[in-house]
Design goal:
elongated; single chain
């Protein structure tokens, strides 16, 4: 994504939005990993609430990744399309 953004010469504001969006996904992934480790430590055996907690955290990471893909398409899509159809 960085190479495409540089090639398309996107604005500073667009770079900022992309950076924050990518950071959000990485932050949520880290929180998901920490939560899973804490749940595993607190509940070594399987429990429905532990599973629900892990599933919810993983779902939030998935939603953030989907949102990041949409943001990337909205920012990079139009200028990329213009470069490719020329």
């Amino acid at each position: 994504m960085v190479a495409v953004g540089a090639w398309l010469r996107i604005s500073r504001a667009e770079w900022a939005v992309l950076a924050v969006t990518m950071a959000l996904v990485l932050i949520l992934e880290g929180l998901n990993s920490a939560l899973e480790a804490a749940v595993d430590l607190a509940m070594p055996r399987q429990h429905p609430l532990a599973k629900a907690c892990k599933d919810l955290a993983a779902g939030m990471v998935l939603l953030a990744a989907i949102a990041a893909a949409v943001v990337g398409l909205l920012i990079l899509g139009p200028p990329l399309w213009q470069k490719l159809v020329k």
